[in-house]
Design a protein that fits this description.
The protein is of the alpha/beta class and 275 residues long. The chain has 10 helices and 5 strands. Helix content is 58%, strand content 14%. The radius of gyration is 34 Å and the shape is elongated. It starts with 16 loop residues before the first helix and ends with a helix.
Length: 275
């Protein structure tokens, strides 16, 4: 597989795959009057390295048409787009994992041309994550300057993966403003995360909706100095706290009366049987 051929003979320099495919392609298309040795000197590559690249290509166990395509500059660009699209569709937009991407590449017979092991694809996945985050930051800065000023409500919560992840979004647009890992859930940490997220947008937060966690309430009232609204669960929970006690006392009284009535009936039945 391609995983086993990621080194270059007799040199420590790490060559880019697109560069090596272009050099091999040019070498094979060179004029017959130019020797392999002279071509290696021209491109400033050790002849042993060039011969290794040529031998590796000729040793790939696949149809020659596939080899010629996937080992060409156009084929390398296509493989790059294919692998990137698989990660975006499977692991970013979809619910699949890196293992699924690796399995897809192997079953498609592409492991001869692209490193398809889990560790190799994990590196690709991390790079795509970094690129997505970088693109998001660029777009936030660009679009934020064009956005009209507005007031918003923030819906905030914490999730665990198992690391703590702070999440805040605008419920009207469904835009996620905060999605950040944090070492704790303190109000100070929330204040910093929201302040950083809002710095790119001309918006004013007028309300925070969240659970009744003390840090979130403190963050809303003292950090942002806005109104705090409990989420739906806690509205029902607070109503229940005020009514459940009285209702439960009636239920327990009814249960006691029922148990007393059952005992009285049992005694009367036993008396009737004796008579």
């Amino acid at each position: 597989s391609y995983n086993k051929s990621l080194y270059v003979a007799s040199e420590n320099k790490k060559w880019d795959r697109a560069v090596t495919s272009k050099l091999v392609y040019d070498c094979e298309l060179r004029k017959q009057t130019i020797s392999q040795r002279d071509f290696a000197k021209k491109i400033v590559v050790a002849r042993s390295t060039l011969r290794y690249w040529l031998d590796r290509k000729s040793s790939i166990d696949a149809h020659f048409v596939l080899v010629e395509f996937f080992e060409s500059p156009v084929g390398i660009a296509f493989l790059h787009r294919l692998v990137t699209s698989a990660h975006v569709s499977f692991t970013k937009a979809g619910a699949a994992s890196i293992h699924n991407v690796s399995d897809f590449l192997k079953k498609a017979g592409l492991s001869l041309f692209v490193a398809s092991s889990y560790s190799s694809q994990r590196r690709v996945d991390r790079q795509i994550d970094d690129n997505i985050i970088q693109f998001g930051n660029i777009e936030d800065n660009k679009l934020g300057r064009q956005m009209p000023a507005k007031t918003i409500t923030l819906c905030e919560d914490e999730t665990f993966h198992p690391e703590i992840c702070l999440v805040a979004m605008d419920p009207v647009s469904n835009f996620i403003l905060v999605e950040r890992y944090a070492i704790n859930r303190e109000s100070k940490t929330w204040n910093e995360a929201v302040r950083d997220a809002l710095s790119n947008f001309p918006v004013e937060v007028i309300q925070v909706a969240s659970d009744e966690g003390r840090s979130l309430i403190s963050h809303a009232l003292k950090g942002l100095k806005v109104h705090h609204s409990p989420d739906c669960f806690h509205v029902i929970y607070e109503i229940g706290k005020g009514t459940c006690g009285a209702l439960m006392s009636k239920v327990k009284n009814a249960e006691k009366k029922y148990e007393k009535a059952v005992k009285q009936i049992t005694v009367l039945l036993k008396t009737a049987i004796r008579e």
